[in-house]
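Justification of resources, computational component.

The compute hours requested in this renewal are based largely on the per-chain cost of generating structure records like the one below. Each record pairs the submitted sequence with a full structure-token output. That output is archived, and it is also reused by downstream analysis tasks.
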Amino acid sequence: MKKTIFEEMGGTYIRHGDYLIPCLTLPVEEENKVIGIWGQRHLCYLKEHKRLVYLNLLTSGRLNEYLANVNEQAENMFSRLVKEYAERQGVTERLKADNQLEWIGRMNNIQACAREVVEREMIYS
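The structure output for this chain reads:
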């Protein structure tokens, strides 16, 4: 019996009833890096809006590495923005010691602003 192109390239088939189904597997990624909240959000965005990019990363075996990189960059950006915004608005440890409720409210506002910037610039673009 003549081999198919798939078999000539090293592929194999599994018989299910009367059908031959190719044995397909995704390439194994070398490292399993942690994908945090930013990486998970970007993954959802890719699945919904950038399907081709998602499938290319998935089938090439680079999806987890890519998402871990996005997560790390977004986390660094978020931390830097929170620190910069707090300095600009005068939210210091002194304010924390003097008036904790005001400090908490201002820090929550700063974190919400930083979260919006990170999402707009890195996650949903």
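The helical segments are 5-8, 37-49, 51-60, 63-89, 93-98, 100-123. The mean pLDDT is 90.
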